[in-house]
Design goal:
five-stranded parallel beta sheet
């Protein structure tokens, strides 16, 4: 048995509610600056009520439900409601157009959609084509507005909440049951990555340990919640530690540090482009006045950008690497050790990583090759690609997940990202200068 045990995401949430009932769990700021917060108990009650609404329409364990929502409490209510009743969550990019969404709905076999008014026109145009979708739920509605008349064939969640009980019956969920499916970025035929409850539990454990998350932490999320970064690098580790989540509806470089200061954020997760955008904002006298102790980021920045950011904002940056198939953060700079610039760090606890040649043989330190990640499907790496056994067997071979990313390992055991395998400019099996 590994550190996951037999846990599922429902058990994790409900245990944290018992531990931290009246502690603030979620703080949300929308685009207009309106702020609302929920304690662990209040959040869990809303999750249960959402779940009973889903069940009242016939949604059941094993069904697939698309969640097409902006960053919001309603996204998280929907996410955990599905998780609690064994429904497979299919989060989708809110920027997706009609062709992409038609493919996502059909390929995933979604029987339901949870969305908001601004996207109802999109789904109205698809429902006649996507015959498997039987239920549409509308969240984030304006109180007093006649949404039930506007959407006569949809369930308006705000209306249904009035009679929805907060007590939820038990649903048998195994830890290897699929929790959600996330689509890859392949523009021709995106694959659906199946992630399990065990995957989420493992992500929470290693994430909380890697960044030393404690209940007093307040983690700041501006990345989209439909992505594995927002879910497995931010959301689940914070929940696992009993910390507080601060979520904004969307990222704003101009507001980022002000929001972090106002909400007393102690940690945050971004990507390299966001680091540069925040850095490009005009300097302000309060730039270094905040509670942040650590910002994790993916996709490298230059050494000069790293130095400028840390110097100006007085907060440590921590680079990492991962992908949906490997549950997000897979290599991380050790925050108790040497944080190397422009380096994706060392393997997380419980995971082995190596660099190999085209024959899957490990190459010497300082040699560029493909990154491969050792793991157990459905526990420490993805379960597989939905309805695509050939792609699954081609990706997971002999216990190693082949990522399609090129990197090299230096003499100290740190990994350095080079590029994607499909990038013609990347030359594998080339020796580089190793760092000592």
């Amino acid at each position: 048995m590994d550190c996951i045990g037999t846990q599922n995401l429902r058990k994790v949430l409900e245990y944290k509610v018992r531990q931290f009932s009246d502690k603030e769990f979620l703080v949300f700021e929308d685009q207009e600056g309106y702020v609302i917060s929920y304690t662990y108990r209040q959040f869990d009650e809303m999750v249960n009520r959402y779940a009973t609404i889903l069940m009242s329409t016939g949604i059941k364990k094993g069904d697939k439900v698309t969640v097409h929502l902006s960053n919001s409490p309603e996204f998280l209510f929907s996410f955990f409601a599905c998780a609690k009743i064994g429904v497979v969550i299919v989060p989708t990019n809110i920027l997706s157009g009609v062709p992409e969404m038609e493919y996502f709905l059909d390929f995933s076999d979604a029987v339901g959609v949870i969305t908001e008014p601004r996207y109802m026109e999109l789904f109205d145009s698809l429902l006649g084509k996507c015959k498997k979708v039987q239920q549409v739920f509308v969240a984030r509605t304006v109180p007093g507005y006649p949404h039930s008349a506007l959407y006569p064939h949809a369930t308006v969640i705000a209306d249904a909440l009035k009679d929805a009980p907060k007590d939820l019956p038990e649903v048998p969920i195994q830890c290897e049951d699929v929790l959600m499916m996330l689509f890859t970025h392949d523009p021709v035929r995106p694959k659906a990555v199946q992630l399990t409850h065990a995957n989420a539990v493992f992500a929470g454990i290693f994430g909380a340990q890697a960044w030393k998350v404690v209940p007093e932490d307040r983690h700041f999320i501006t990345l989209p919640l439909f992505h594995v970064n927002g879910q497995f690098i931010s959301l689940i580790p914070s929940l696992t530690a009993g910390a507080t989540l601060i979520i904004t509806e969307q990222f704003s470089a101009a507001k980022f540090m002000k929001q972090a200061r106002r909400h007393r954020a102690t940690t945050a997760s971004v990507v390299g482009a966001m680091v540069r955008m925040i850095l490009s904002e005009p300097p302000a006298e309060h730039d270094a006045e905040h509670c942040l102790r650590l910002i994790m980021y993916a996709i490298s920045v230059t050494d000069e950008e790293w130095d400028a950011f840390e110097s100006r904002f007085r907060v440590r940056l921590c680079d990492l690497w991962g992908m949906t198939e490997t549950l997000g953060a897979t290599t991380v700079n050790p925050i108790d050790g040497i944080l190397k610039k422009n380096c994706i760090g060392m393997p997380r606890l419980g995971t082995a990583v190596m660099v190999v040649d085209e024959h899957a043989a490990e190459v010497p330190a300082g040699t560029v090759g493909e990154l491969v990640v050792q793991g157990v499907p459905g526990r420490t790496i993805m379960k597989g690609y939905y309805k695509n056994p050939d792609a699954t067997s081609a990706t997971i071979r002999n216990g190693w997940l082949h990522t399609g990313d090129y990197a090299y390992m230096d003499e100290a055991g740190y990994f350095h990202f080079v590029g994607r395998k499909k990038d013609a400019a990347v030359s594998p099996h080339v020796r580089v200068i190793s760092e000592q």
